[in-house]
Amino acid sequence: MPGRDPNLWQQLLTYIAMVWPQIYAGGLAFVVALIRGLHAGNKARQSWLEAILCGCLTFGLFPVLHYLGLPGGLAASIGAFIAFKGTEWFGTRADELYEKLVGRWLK
Question: Could you list the residue range(s) of the whole structural domain that residue 93 is in?
Answer without folding.
Answer: 20-106
